Amino acid sequence: MRFPALAAAAFLTLAACNSTPPAPAPLELPAHAAADPALVPLEFLAGRWICVNPNQTVNEEHWTAPRGKCMVGAFRQVRRDGKCAFVEVSQISVEEGALVLRLRHLHGQLEVPDNQKDISMFALRALAPRRVEFAGTGSAEGVAAVIYERPDDDTLLQTIEFDPVKTKEKPFTSKYMRER
Predict the structure, then answer these.
(1) Which helix (H) or strand (E) holds 26?
(2) Is the CB of residue 53 less than 8 Å from the CB of residue 75?
(3) What's the CATH number where 169 sits?
(4) How many domains does the chain fold into?
């Protein structure tokens, strides 16, 4: 009689250890955290993106989902020696109904470059499905365009174009792949 009771207890204990815990209840966010309608078309940016440059440095760009009146991006470039070359913190926000891109460029040890003390500001120039284009303003006027576009679900293209009158920089496009 004792053995069946012990076997049943052992079976129930083993079953309890191997069972999947219940999923947590979904987090309910307050209404003010809902994405502003002006940001909803930029949901295509959200995710983790990575690319290998022709010189073998690695770029990573991570964008949060729109929440409230902003979304945030973090960028880093890893040099061939493994060290961090530089980082950028970006924010796209809704201000007086318009979309604005701000970014702060930092050297690898998070120091602000002497020639980039001001936050770079960009105004919305064009918005289409899975594509957004900003133009530099103020101290960033030398940047004619910052363009993000998603030609497919796993690719994000970032193109930077420069004003040839204000800078001798050449335009370039970085092709990011979704990192899972």
Answers:
(1) none
(2) no
(3) 2.40.128.20
(4) 1
Determine which helix (DSSP H) or strand (DSSP E) holds 24, and give its type and residue range: none
Q: What is the dihedral of CA 74, 63, 38, 100, to 10 degrees?
A: 20
Least confident of 106-110, 140-144, 172-176: 106-110
**Inside any domain, residue 91:** yes
DSSP state of 67: B
Residue where the block lists tokens 């955290």: 33
Evaluate whether 147 touches 127 at the Cβ level (below 8 Å). no
Run of H or E residues at 15:
helix 2-18
Q: Is the pTM of this model over 0.70?
A: yes
Q: Identify the residue whose tokens are 């006027």.
A: 141
Q: Which residue has the higher pLDDT, 25 or 85?
A: 85
Residue 6 belongs to some domain of the structure? no
| Residue 35 DSSP code | P
What the block records as the tokens of 86 is 């530089």
